[in-house]
Request: fold
Amino acid sequence: MNLEGKRILLGVSGSIAAYKSADIASQLGKSGADVHAALTANAAQFVGVPTFRALTRNPVLTDTFEEPDTKRIAHIELAQSADLVLVAPATANILAKMAHGIADDMLTTCLLATPQSTPLLVAPAMNTQMWLHPATSENLRILQARGVQVIPPGSGLLACQDVGEGKLAEVSEIVAAVMATLGTAQTLAGHHLLITAGATREPLDPVRFLTNRSSGKMGYALAQEAIRRGATVTLVSGITNLPPPHKANLVRVETAEQMLKACLEALPSVTGIIASAAVADYRPLQVADHKLKKREGEEEVVLRLAKNPDVIAELGRRKRPEQRSIGFAAETQDLLANATRKIAAKNLDLIVVNDVLKEGAGFDVDTNIVTLVWRDGKRNALPKMTKAEVSRHILDAYSELPRWRGQF
Ligand code: PMT
Reply:
């Protein structure tokens, strides 16, 4: 993709991964972008300022009091004229400063001066304990709620010799995220998608419930991507710890019956449905008002379950002819046969099948391995990719569905 005419502010903070941002600067520059680097003092300890000056062919911002041109406040001008701001690597420290509006050096001042409407991407890199620290999670939550796009770190051997999460995402992934953000055509402008996500939770008594391992990552990635393409999104979400995508109309539910009710309310106003939620097929027949007690001598108990409504099947029965619907199939065997059966049973236009036993696919991971199966039997088996990338394929396919053209 050509980034000609796009100005990118690349913030580099003090992590050993800072050397990789030289590669990021180089790749963005080769794609035509006008890249301006701003380094924290710690970042400049890891990589030399001349490296970024040579790669970007622009002055490098490091010190608030050392403006290259004394007649202009270049860092404010730059922050306000950038088409996109990327902080890579983003340390726990800079994420904390960004979340709390601290501007005590050149980079953080630029970040605070960046208009809210400018896309802001961060690619965290840090030690696993720092990444898992509640303070970091809370800061990311604050930033995501403001619309900051987080390019999640990978797992592996870190510079501190720990093995775990916190490794800067691959340079290619970071560059692709920039491209995707800058190059996103508003192909879904004027459309309204109903997306279901996460796990339902079916209570047994006030303290126990039946649920499943869905994290909501797949559905939230779909919502995020649909919003980036200009769609209005109603996100009916079961249980998840994820922050809601910026601009999504979030409806939180717990049980399958609540999910059905929320979806039926949204149905008349939507142009399409994507059902990625893992909905419990059964719920405890009786919900006790008080905590169920263990009984002396009772070695086995029988739990009676009642059938839940099938949310997407019900939507499939009631949808108008121009409303398209995409379902998911979480399978462990006979993938394609089961998927084909579900397309018909749930009146879907397309189904996304994942083998949830495969490593890197399905529940509670950042990646997925899916096959798209259309109503007419056409298939597209995709390799392992992030859920954000899977979402792009699904929404591309959605845009191409036969009833798409000229309907809305
Ligand atoms: O949330 P993540 O951790 O990211 O995991 C993603 C995922 C594994 C949950 C996702 O990729 C996925 O496969 N979602 C569908 C899970 C599922 O319930 O599959 P199913 O084959 O049981 O159901 C088929 C379809 O019917 C699904 O679209 C489901 O949302 C829908 N359904 C199922 C049962 C029911 N009572 N109501 C429904 O609407």
Summary: The chain has two domains: 7-182, 192-287+297-407.
